[in-house]
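G., the chain you wanted modeled:
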Amino acid sequence: MTDTHPFRTVHVLIEGRVQGVYYRAWTQQSARELGLSGWVQNRRDGAVEAVFSGDPVCVDTMLRRCEDGPPDALVTNVTVISEGGSVPDGFSVRRTG
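Predicted structure as tokens:
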């Protein structure tokens, strides 16, 4: 039996001390290592927002990684805002939104 949903796409909000600690670059590097597409950006409220799309196991791995983040981060919450949709191939860092 083949899986009819080989990709999972999640839109997430990451809160805590996540700006000024290399979080976006770390996220891009981690997502690329896992073969995920999507984007990451700082928000004006101090949080980080991201979209991850790819193999469901890799998306789950990325979500777990986001709970820790890079060494200087202090993540207090990772919330999946929505699921579904598609993104272009590749992973980008967006300007603050």
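Residues 8-83 form a domain with the Alpha-Beta Plaits fold (CATH 3.30.70.100).

Shout if anything looks off.
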